[in-house]
Design a protein that fits this description.
Structural class of chain B: mainly beta
Number of helices of chain B: 0
Radius of gyration of chain A: 13 Å
Mean pLDDT of chain B: 91
Largest interface: A-B, 21 and 26 residues
CATH architecture of the domain at 25-98 in chain B: Sandwich
Strand content of chain A: 35-45%
CATH class of the domain at 25-98 in chain B: Mainly Beta
CATH topology of chain A: Immunoglobulin-like
Largest sheet of chain A: 6 strands, mixed
Order of helices and strands of chain B: EEEEEEEEEE
Low-confidence stretches of chain A: none
CATH superfamily of the domain at 25-98 in chain B: Immunoglobulins
Shape of chain B: globular
Structural class of chain A: mainly beta
CATH superfamily of chain A: Immunoglobulins
Strand content of chain B: over 45%
Order of helices and strands of chain A: EEEEEEEEEEE
Distance between the termini of chain A: 41 Å
CATH topology of the domain at 25-98 in chain B: Immunoglobulin-like
Oligomer: heterodimer
Mean pLDDT of chain A: 91
Largest sheet of chain B: 6 strands, mixed
Chain lengths: 110, 116
């Protein structure tokens, strides 16, 4: 069974500090990993996916198959990064039902 | 183009009543998902529709929950005899399953259900 673990419910940092939101997964096949973000009063939206290997809003995430992790990182947090972040896993082929982590609330203080 | 829309945005009901929640997916998206979002529980998968295939109902928490999708487009989630523990935000998402967006989920704004 596939599982996504986000160990931190809440992460609180100051503006300009580095931030890392942790995501570990359990899956035996070829996973497709995503980070979704939900800003206050906005809908949940895709932030980035491992396949595209992009940096979005200064965030990056590298898939580490050895450690089964897909941590989200940003070197200098901004106040506008405050939001709820969800890590999600889908199969690259086959079942399209994704598994979401429980989410991490990031608060960036001025 | 238009994104996923859901209605109503808020619904307050009394325990024991039935409710219907509606989702309009992005035009052309063959896949449609319903989730429940509760504080501290993340996103709980409820049901998945893909084209004309039989829906995957494995996430429905009880037989009080049902959903249908008419004509491969609009979907309604029905909760019968609502209970207070059904209070949550119900999210709908659609997906094209075609490149380049493939498995990306496009979410609606959600319906906040409050059962008194």
């Amino acid at each position: 069974a596939q599982r996504v673990t986000q160990p931190e419910k809440l992460l609180s940092v100051f503006k300009g500090a580095p931030v890392e939101l942790k995501c570990n997964y359990s899956y035996s096949g070829s996973p497709e990993l995503f980070w979704y973000v939900q800003y206050s009063r906005q809908r949940l939206q895709l932030l980035l996916r491992h396949i595209s290997r992009e940096s979005i809003k200064g965030f990056t995430a590298d898939l580490n198959k050895g450690e089964t992790s897909f941590h989200l990182k940003k070197p200098f947090a901004q106040e506008e990064d405050s939001a709820m972040y969800y890590c999600a896993l889908s199969e690259q082929r086959g079942s399209y039902i994704p598994t979401f982590g429980r989410g991490t609330s990031l608060i960036v203080h001025p | 183009g238009a994104g996923v829309s859901q209605s109503p945005s808020n619904k307050v009901t009394e325990k024991g009543k039935d409710v219907e929640l509606r989702c309009d997916p992005i035009s052309g998206h063959t896949a449609l998902y319903w989730y429940r979002q509760s504080l501290g529980q993340g996103l709980e998968f409820l049901i998945y529709f893909q084209g004309n295939s039989a829906p995957d109902k494995s996430g429905l928490p009880s037989d009080r929950f049902s959903a249908e999708r008419t004509g491969g487009s609009v979907s309604t989630l029905t909760i019968q005899r609502t209970q207070q523990e059904d209070s949550a935000v119900y999210l709908c998402a659609s997906s094209s399953h075609r490149e380049p967006t493939s498995n990306e989920q496009f979410f609606g704004p959600g319906t906040r259900l409050t059962v008194l």
